[in-house]
């Protein structure tokens, strides 16, 4: 049990450094920052790279790629059209990952909860 807890703590610490863009700790390299972006560290500097539409980050090549060429969970496209906004365990991946169902917010040019986006994409009223 101690090994499992330690692994989770170490993974969480590394993921935190990536989200914060802390290249001093990570060193030079390319680090996944989610399925749609990655962090490039060089000489202590950092740069977050967003993947183009319809592409995801491929750990095997350290570049954005077509989802068909990428391993789970990023390579799997999930249809959220019949689900409410929220976060869901990826049961097809033994709950080792999760996915978030949202809608596109044209005003913010990003994904957002449906109740925070005006129609026709969202359900926000008033």
UniProtKB/TrEMBL annotation:
Keywords: Signal
UniProt entry tagged with the keyword Signal: yes
Signal sequence annotation: 1-20
Domain Chitin-binding type-2: 20-76
Keyword DNA repair (UniProt): no
A Pfam family annotated for this UniProt entry: CBM_14
Domain of life where this protein originates: Eukaryota
InterPro entries (UniProt xref): Chitin-bd_dom, Chitin-bd_dom_sf
Record-given protein name: Chitin-binding type-2 domain-containing protein
């Amino acid at each position: 049990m101690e090994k499992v807890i330690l692994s989770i703590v170490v993974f969480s610490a590394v993921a935190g450094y990536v989200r914060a863009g802390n290249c001093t700790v990570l060193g030079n390299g390319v680090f996944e920052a989610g399925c749609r972006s990655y962090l490039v560290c060089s000489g202590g500097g950092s740069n977050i790279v967003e993947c183009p539409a319809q592409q995801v980050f491929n750990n095997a090549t350290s570049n954005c790629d077509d989802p068909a060429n990428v391993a789970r969970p990023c390579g799997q496209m999930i249809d959220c059209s019949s689900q409410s906004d929220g976060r869901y365990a990826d049961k097809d991946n033994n709950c080792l990952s999760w996915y978030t169902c949202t809608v596109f917010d044209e005003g913010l040019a990003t994904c957002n909860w449906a109740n925070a986006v005006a129609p026709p994409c969202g359900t926000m009223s008033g």
